[in-house]
């Protein structure tokens, strides 16, 4: 069934586990994430990023409608989240398109501008009954962004600043920069667990890990134990899908039916989803 992101994250945080949130781009992503969650017998979040909307000719609804129907028919709880939103126009489409939550992304801006933009987004979101996540400190590595120096001060979330930011903005959850980077194609990130512990102690909202594709299983498990309640994964699905399709086409150069290779790609994504949920999540009650 279709449920809200707020309830899944709250439940995960209460159980010291995390809900996995996967970025969907194609219908195959939608089907693979739902099937992977059903196979793990655990709840999941389907998230659509602003970049994915741009890829879909700027239209949110076709993919959103598919995700809503897939969620309604799933045997496990599934929520819809609008991810990395910078555009006010897109933000305002969230509720009508079936999303129960949004991530408002102004982390690239100086603190005061991030806070002001986030606070306005929170006011609007809460008036709509939406759960809202924002980011302080920069995870970096998003497509279209200049590369970030992983050791620059802005590349980590400061606990005292985070406490003030959450308090002054009213966000429901905070994405924190603790060493992960978006779009990594190797699982070699090491997280700053000491910083995570301090963030967790300073904040009373659930914490979100972005760029989780580059984080190895043992680091993910430790992050969840340290207070991460939502784990965002995108690139890992593209690695699985593209790798499987590349291998299939190399072995079958005569193939023309797109279903043949899309089903192989979908299978590979589904296995990746199940594996990540087993690492960070819990069985559905
Ligand atoms: O918000 C989406 C995630 O942070 C995805 O990051 O593609 O590096 O897994 P990733
Ligand atoms: Zn992200």
What is the string of helix and strand elements?
Answer: HEHEHHEHEHEHEHEHEHH
Strand residue content = 5-15%
H/I helix tally: 11
Overall domain count: 1
Can you tell me the residue ranges where pLDDT is under 50 for at least 5 consecutive residues? none
The CATH architecture assignment turns out to be: Alpha-Beta Barrel
User: What is the SS-derived class?
Assistant: alpha/beta
**Tertiary shape:** globular
Pfam families: F_bP_aldolase (PF01116)
GO molecular function, one term: zinc ion binding
Keywords: Metal-binding, Zinc
Protein name: Class II fructose-bisphosphate aldolase family protein
Note the main attributes of this structure.
binds zinc ion, metal-binding, globular, 8 strands, zinc, TIM Barrel, Class_II_FBP_aldolase, alpha/beta, binds glyceraldehyde-3-phosphate, Class II fructose-bisphosphate aldolase family protein, 47% helix, 285 residues
Structure explained in plain terms:
The chain is an alpha/beta fold. It has a single domain (5-280), classed as Aldolase class I (TIM Barrel, Alpha-Beta Barrel). It contains eleven helices and eight strands. The protein has helices at 5-14, 27-40, 50-55, 61-73, 88-91, 111-127, 159-169, 193-202, 217-225, 235-251, 258-280; strands spanning 19-23, 44-49, 78-85, 101-104, 131-136, 173-176, 207-209, 228-233. The protein has an eight-stranded parallel beta barrel, surrounded by nine helices. Helix 2 (27-40) packs across helix 11 (258-280) and helix 10 (235-251) runs antiparallel to helix 11. The chain is globular and about 60 Å long. 48% of the residues are buried. The structure holds glyceraldehyde-3-phosphate and zinc ion (ZN). Residues 84, 139, 182, 210-211, 232 line the site of zinc ion.
């Amino acid at each position: 069934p279709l449920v809200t992101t707020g309830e899944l994250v709250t439940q995960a945080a209460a159980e010291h586990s995390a809900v996995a949130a996967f970025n969907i781009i194609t219908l195959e992503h939608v089907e693979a994430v739902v099937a992977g969650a059903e196979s793990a017998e655990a709840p999941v979040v389907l998230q659509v990023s602003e970049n994915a909307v741009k890829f879909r000719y700027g239209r949110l609804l076709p993919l959103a409608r598919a995700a809503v129907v897939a969620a309604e028919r799933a045997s496990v709880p599934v929520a819809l989240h609008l991810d990395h939103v910078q555009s006010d126009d897109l933000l305002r489409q969230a509720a009508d398109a079936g999303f129960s939550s949004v991530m408002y992304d102004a982390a690239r801006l100086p603190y005061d501008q991030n806070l002001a933009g986030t606070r306005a987004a929170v006011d609007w979101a809460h008036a709509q009954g939406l759960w809202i996540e924002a980011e302080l400190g920069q995870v970096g590595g998003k497509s279209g962004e200049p590369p970030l120096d992983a050791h620059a001060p802005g590349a980590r979330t400061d606990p005292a600043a985070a406490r003030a930011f959450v308090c002054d903005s009213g966000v429901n959850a905070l994405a924190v920069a603790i060493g992960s980077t978006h779009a990594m194609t190797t699982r070699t990130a090491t997280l700053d667990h000491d910083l995570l512990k301090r963030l967790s102690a300073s904040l009373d909202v659930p914490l979100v890990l972005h760029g989780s594709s580059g984080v190895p299983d043992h680091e993910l498990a430790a992050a969840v134990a340290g207070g991460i309640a939502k784990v965002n994964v995108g690139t890992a699905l593209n690695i699985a899908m593209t790798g499987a399709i590349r291998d299939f086409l190399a072995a079958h150069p005569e193939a023309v039916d797109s279903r043949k290779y899309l089903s192989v790609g979908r299978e590979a994504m589904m296995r990746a989803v199940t594996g990540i949920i087993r690492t960070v999540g819990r069985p559905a009650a």
